[in-house]
Design goal:
Length: 58
């Protein structure tokens, strides 16, 4: 591939990536939302298990 074409292609990819990053800058990243959902779900399961165990041994 021609060196000029490679540089142009690289510049286009970088500009596209920069545009996507700037466009969604105000939004929370997907992984943060998923992490929060996981922690809430984990806490609910833990509380439910403790309540079952506590009732069983009370």
């Amino acid at each position: 591939m021609n060196k000029k074409v490679e540089i142009t292609l690289l510049a286009a990819i970088l500009l596209f990536a920069f545009f996507i990053r700037i466009y969604a800058l105000g939004n929370a990243p997907f992984w943060i939302d998923e992490s929060i959902s996981y922690l809430i779900q984990e806490q609910c399961i833990t509380e439910h298990l403790f309540s079952i165990i506590f009732r069983h041994f009370s």
